[in-house]
Amino acid sequence: MSLTTILGRTVDDAQTPLLLAEILDLLLAEPSPVRFTAYDGSSTGRADAEITVSLNTPRAAAYLATAPGSLGLARAYVTGELQVTGVHPGNPYALLVAMDQLKWRRPDVRTTMRIARSLGMKRLVPPPPPPQETLPDWRRALEGLRHSKIRDAEAIHHHYDVSNTFYEMLLGPSMTYTCAVYPNEQATLEEAQYNKYDLIARKLDLKPGMRLLDVGCGWGGMVRHAAEHYGVKALGVTLSAEQAEWAQQEIKRQGLEDLAEVRFGDYRDVIEGDFDAVSSIGLTEHIGVRNYPSYFEFLREKLRPGGRLLNHSIARPDNIHRARVKGGFIDRYIFPDGELTGAGSVIVALQNAGLEMRHEENLREHYARTCAAWAENLMANWDAAVAEVGEATAKIWGMYLAGCSNGFGKRQIELHQILAVRPDERGHSQYPLRHTFGV
């Protein structure tokens, strides 16, 4: 260990407080491709790096020290205590790709103690989180059991009732907040969203006069598509009051009142039954893995014998049981109480509920492209978006969309469509010998 002479005394370097850039260097196994600067005057990383991360205040250091990983980074970034140059806040995709290249190492006990002493006790006390952050899991538990109707309603309100005007900027004319299906490399987002709804309609074999139930219907995109293009009488249900209001106005504007309806309420409160088809597009992620049996049993009971279910949901790339991730960026800022499992587990659950799986496909590359398109919309409308929801919320969405695009692209998460049918009591499915929906 080297020695340094200070004020005429010889001092062990291990007792000298570390600067923030020095702490980062101790935690990295390889040099950072991102330039890092700190309020204490220290810096590290390539001098010619395109991206610079600046830790501007002691509070920013406290956020990172007390919530390592995505949560601490998000807190510092959202509050502006940490700033990033070289990327647009509406789409910091390049930052996340660069951060993926960082190779970390676990410090030994002596190094850990030295880092703690250098930071000081004040940096090891968590500062108050930004107001955009939802309550921690234990506080949410005081409001009701996870996935109870009351708690589900609050979780949906947190994410979906941001602002319909903001979502119009983000999602575009389709107002569709689920994975699009791109028919070709040149297709626009709107073309891909139309194609997604039409693919689902074909998989469900919709025909004039049929009845469709769309659970977790969002702004009513599937409901309106089925009514307008297939002559189907469609009912959609959403827990977001703002979504329901927007959807009903759009249904009226399109003159579809005789066929289409969107209700504000819990899908579990739908009393109608004997539907020809049920679509669940982006709802399964919100209901909890333990609730899959009752969820698919409920949907099965809503179908007539021979009726079809299309389940469209995000999934893990494996079926290894994992505890729900608590306290990360996604849980505290985006999807409170959200939970994922593998597509195989979803198929097992629907089969155990008496449904027969007939077709399955993974569309994860389409979701990477969809999230990138939403991020482009956010950048294009950045000033208006900030004026509508505030810079902090807009930055949260930029980080979220960039992270999702990156995650789908490298198969951290997937998107699966599963087509199932309710056989009759003799096992007859009314399904043709070959699929008729094409691609």
From TrEMBL:
Q: Which residues form the Polyketide synthase-like methyltransferase domain?
A: 166-423
List the Gene Ontology MF annotations in alphabetical order.
methyltransferase activity
- Keywords annotated in UniProt: Lipid metabolism, Methyltransferase, S-adenosyl-L-methionine, Transferase
**Pfam families associated with the record:** CMAS
Q: Active-site positions, per UniProt?
A: C404
Which domain of life, per UniProt? Bacteria
The reply on keyword Nuclease is no
Which biological processes are named by the entry's GO terms? Answer: lipid biosynthetic process; methylation
Q: Family assignment? A: Belongs to the CFA/CMAS family.
Q: What is this protein called?
A: Class I SAM-dependent methyltransferase
Give the organism the record lists: Kineosporia babensis
Top-level taxonomy:
Bacteria, Bacillati, Actinomycetota, Actinomycetes, Kineosporiales
